[in-house]
Amino acid sequence: MTQDTLRQRDQRTGWFLVIPALLILLLVFAYPILRAFWLSLFTQNLGTQLQAEFTGLTNYGRLVGDSRFWQSLGNTTIFTVLSIIVELVIGLAFALILNQTFRGRGLVRTITLIPWALPTAVMGLAWAWIFNDQFGVVNDLLLRLGILETGITWLGEPTRAMFALIFADVWKTTPFIAILLLAGLQSIPKDLYEAHAIDGASPVQSFWQITLPLIAPQILIALLFRFAQSFGIFDLVQVMTGGGPAGATETVSIYIYAMVRRYLDFGYGAALVVVTFLILVVAIALTAFLLARARINVSGER
Amino acid sequence: MPLLTLENLRKQFAPDVIPVKDISLTVADGEFLTLLGPSGCGKSTLLRLIAGLDQPTQGQVKVGETDLTTTPPGDRNMAMVFQSYALYPHMTVAENISAALKIRKIPSMEIRQRIGEVADKLGLTHLLDRKPGKLSGGQRQRVALARALVRNPDVFLLDEPLSNLDALLREQVREELKHIFNAQKKPVVYVTHDQTEAMTLSSKVAVLLDGRIQQLDPPSRIYTHPANRFVAGFVGSPQMNFLALQSQGGVGTLGTLKLPLPNGLGDRPTVDLGVRPEDIYLTPTGEEPTLKGKVTLVENFGREQLVTVQFGEGSSKIRAVIPPEQEWSGDHVGLSLKAAKMHWFDSKTGDRLSPT
Amino acid sequence: MLKVQSPTTTKTLISPGRLLLWVGVILMVGFCLAPVLWQLLTSFKTNAAISTIPTIYWPNWNQLTAAHYIGLGGEFLRYMGNSFFVSFISTCLCLVVGAPAAYSLARLKIPGENIILGLILIVSLFPYVLLFLGLLEIVKAVGIGNNYIALIVPYTAINLPLTILVLRSFFQQLPKDLEDSAKMDGYNTVAMLQHIVLPMTIPALVTTGILTFIFAWNEFIFALTFITRPEMETIPVAVAKIGGASVFEIPYGPIAAATVLGTIPLVILVLLFQRRIVQGITAGAVKG
């Protein structure tokens, strides 16, 4: 026992230093999630005069038949998949550009960071203004280019509203992906390209055979972060469309928020939280699994 | 009176990672002990065990009669000089030197006086207000040394303090170290892989291999009476020549070479002979054992020549150090080995065999 | 000194590759700046100029005004003050709580270290909408609605994972000898953290602090839920409310002005600390 006291002293200090952070994390992350699991077994809404009544899995039964939930889940999926794909492609293009040497690169890199840093809620308003039916600059530009003959409704039409949301989200989050991928690009040794070029490969071949495989881990990490954020998208939608028109852009987050804040249905809201949480956990676990495999592949090749 | 005592120290990180295996030794006041060995021999781990930066799996570290095995490093009153110097980059030289004193709540008057003294001794007075980033390698080294000296510790620990200096500076600092530590009375434990440092600085050298002490002796004895083949080969440059001899009836043979074996080696079929290159002469004296061979390589160091001679069936080589001006004719030469300077080792265990 | 000039800029024509690159750069810069510049332009146009069709891109002096900014008035400065207060305090708290935890997880080898790290990584992926219901209950139960504690604590928490991961990776890069040296000098772990480790990692603390400040400034859903007194609102909520305030006539000018004011502090942060932000984002994600 006495042999280990120095080590034990270190560990005691270690716990002492880490515990405040853990407590805050437990309070803000673990408690609300666990609480949601518990609360989802109760009915607590205006019908019960906001008193919690134990009703078992009733909320989950209701959820299965709740077409509005399924629609919001579908909307969220469409939004997430499309925005992430576009962001990855544009983000990679950004990263490739920023990886070149050219005059003013520092300034350009700074500029590309700006969308990432600005508040989503605030810029959501800016985008709503840009996509405005009457005075929006998008309509004006399309008219001037001769693509449209009359101005069209953007945020009032289901497909176009979704398009506008995805466009705004791509604007906002592409820089984040670009930064991650740029870090990946910068970690690839130059001589790999030189050796490949000497072997007779074209730059395009080098891109597919060297660049992409070697930044696969960064792509997956970006995917993981972006998936989680995108799946929980709230501020942008709330500010730009409020979930409309007629629920066409309502995401799961918007629905949960409305269920709790507008309909005051806490029990059902908790059930929605639980289901969303579980979907996310499964998806994240899957991505993390792929990530682990990609890392092994990459290190195995080198 | 022995001040620093290590008793049966052992450090085990994993079942098959045991950098220190059962080491016991003492370092008395005024003694300068060098832990010498190749990388991975456990010398640095041993130093960290003494310092308290690592905890031994078994055994004890004592200073005087006090058992310090579980005492935190800061409470052991030992000072350590690190290979990288480990100066605090955000503090000035003076702050670096005084950090430990401030923690010990020594009055600021005394701190200032002690900084002044040590800075004066090491020629740092004009650098006291600088940050380490603005110092040369040699100056940093001195600050690290000052930081240890200013504390008047019970034990000094030095971990390869010269290895980050270039060759010229190293020689100069080595001299300074010798002066400084000769002038004070506390035990010093010094880790190095450099035999020159070990030979010149120490009053005692512990040669380590595989976490065990191979030999613990004054430097001259390490050189003249190496305890085994490893020590013999590790200490001395150019390296000692080793010849594996067949032994029969008191005569050792290697190809055409025949040597009378000294008494007391015991009855054994083979024996290893070790001869240092400087104990071999190019001119046969007629009295010493002689061997004939062909010169394959001459390296002139200016101060001496190192001659490599191939002999026997062509597979054996022996190297001799000879005066720079010595000349010889033809490729074929005869070498005499100084009988009094021969070392004998068991060919299996490598242990030294002592003739009677 | 010889001046070396690249031949492409002086004599020969720009190669197709360079041309493509510059087209890409221009598109990229345009894409990133256009919405911001458009808001800036709108915020200075008179109401008449704003609602002129076709759209005015180069207004003359008569079509320009500062009225929208003046109209926002001192009230808006208060929102900025609110945002600054909440973001600053939560950033400080986050560093005070996160740095020791990061150090512990980097060096002190506590049992369960990997589990803790894994959990920290996972919670950093949680959307906030999953948390607001449970937090709302706590806020109500403790009675801290319309109290900045209800924002500061969650903001600290949502930024802790990033803070811990980034700082941990910085601590791991510190040479270990320095800490050993500090131990020999007699510092205990807490004093060592305070006097040796943290002063040496000030750049990392600044990096993390900037990120947490930005995230706190931008947070929307908690601010929308826990703060209902108008004069206590933070920038994102206050701006969003201007957008939803009037049913019949949407005040585009004031919205644009509010957007510009609300984002200026962040643009300044980006301009000043671009390098650190990039460093922080990559350290946070790649280490995870």
Which properties best describe this structure?
heterotrimer; A: 302 residues; mainly alpha; MetI-like fold; two-stranded antiparallel sheet; globular; C: 288 residues; 13 helices
Describe this structure in words.
The complex is a heterotrimer of chains A (302), B (356) and C (288). Chain A has helices spanning 5-39, 58-64, 67-98, 105-117, 120-130, 137-144, 158-186, 190-198, 203-214, 216-231, 235-240, 252-261, 266-301, and strands spanning 42-43, 53-54. Chain A has 302 residues and is mainly α. The model of chain B has no long low-confidence stretch (mean pLDDT 88). Chain C has 288 residues and is an all-alpha fold. Chain C is 76% helix and 0% strand. The radius of gyration of chain C is 24 Å and the shape is globular. Classes of the chains: A mainly alpha (302), B alpha+beta (356), C mainly alpha (288). At the A-C interface, helix 1, helix 3, helix 4, helix 5 and helix 6 of A face helix 2, helix 4, helix 5, helix 6 and helix 7 of C.
Ordered list of secondary-structure elements with their pairings:
The complex is a heterotrimer of chains A (302), B (356) and C (288).
Chain A: H1 5-39, E1 42-43, E2 53-54, H2 58-64, H3 67-98, H4 105-117, H5 120-130, H6 137-144, H7 158-186, H8 190-198, H9 203-214, H10 216-231, H11 235-240, H12 252-261, H13 266-301
Antiparallel strand pairs in A: 1-2
Helix pairs in contact in A: 1-13, 2-13, 3-7, 3-10, 4-7, 7-10, 10-13, 12-13
Chain B: E1 2-11, E2 20-28, E3 32-36, H1 43-51, E4 58-63, E5 66-67, E6 78-81, H2 93-103, H3 108-122, H4 137-149, E7 155-159, H5 167-182, E8 188-192, H6 195-201, E9 204-209, E10 212-217, H7 219-224, H8 229-234, E11 241-248, E12 251-254, E13 257-260, E14 270-275, E15 280-281, E16 290-300, E17 305-311, E18 316-322, E19 332-337, E20 343-345, E21 352-353
Parallel strand pairs in B: 3-8, 3-9, 6-7, 7-8
Antiparallel strand pairs in B: 1-2, 1-4, 4-5, 9-10, 11-12, 11-14, 12-13, 14-20, 15-19, 16-17, 16-19, 17-18, 20-21
Helix pairs in contact in B: 2-3, 2-4, 3-4
Chain C: H1 7-10, H2 16-44, H3 47-50, H4 67-107, H5 113-123, H6 129-142, H7 149-173, H8 176-185, H9 189-200, H10 202-218, H11 221-226, H12 235-245, H13 252-286
Helix pairs in contact in C: 2-13, 4-7, 4-10, 4-13, 5-7, 7-10, 7-13, 8-9, 10-13, 12-13
